[in-house]
Amino acid sequence: MKTKAFIFDLDGVIVDTAKYHYLAWKKIADTLNIDFTHEHNELLKGVSRVRSLEIILGLGNVEATEEQKNEWLNQKNEDYLAYIDKMDDSEILPGVMRVLNFLKDHNQPIILGSASKNARPILEKVQILNYFDDIVDGNDVSNAKPDPEVFIVGARKANQTNENSIVFEDSVAGIEAANTAKMTSIGIGEASILNEAKFNFNNFEEISEDFLAELINQ
Ligand code: B16
Ligand code: MG
Fold it and tell me: Packing angle between helix 209-217 and helix 96-105, nearest 10 degrees?
């Protein structure tokens, strides 16, 4: 069997932390009287923490000093971490463990490629940190998705070329990043939204072992 790099996004792919990001941002938005809905939350998927705050402030036309913004960023992360602290392995999305186990059984490098600066504690909480050969997260890169930096660094860590790398992503920006790097992009979520992905699945339960074997041997 051949070897590929399998790169996983975190939020929306392995776990659904978007709901916790939403609750923590909502608290900030409420104090500023900014209307922040679940639809608005979609705009924050795959986007960095700093950029997320800019988007929220933009919704309410709120201007602020750097100092004030840093205060909100810290507050939001503290609240978010309190939600993370309560997570356990029941929050791993359906089908993820079967796919991770299949890849491990076939000696494929498994890499995390996430915008989050909290990726390690989350993987620890849901007890799958040891599945990952390497982690590339928001602490390691300076360019956010759709820039492909996070995935390119991930492929290098697995000693694989971009063309031999496969990316699982739930965000439009992440699919764009994978495509720009000439990696095989797999959209997890609605195909109508992730229409630039090479392959689309609603979730990991739809991904067969035959399909994974084909990816490895292509
Ligand atoms: P943090 P992903 C992203 O994770 C989230 O989708 C996005 O909503 C969040 O703003 C970003 O991480 C930064 O997260 O505040 O924990 O550093 O989808 O790239 O795994
Ligand atoms: Mg994501």
Answer: 40
45-75 pLDDT, tens digit per residue, is 889 999 999 999 999 999 999 999 999 999 9
Q: Strand, coil or helix: what is 184? A: strand
Distance (angstroms) between ligand 1 centre and the Cα of 22 equals 11
Number of domains in the chain: 2
**53: domain range?**
18-84
Taking the model in full, what pTM does it have? Answer: 0.95
Tokens of 143: 């360019």
Which residues of the chain form beta strands (DSSP E)?
A: 5-8, 110-113, 134-136, 165-169, 184-188, 199-201
Domain at 61, CATH number: 1.10.150.240
Q: Are 132 and 39 members of one domain?
A: no
Same domain for 167 and 112: yes
Ligand 1 in reach of 125 Cβ (< 6 A): no
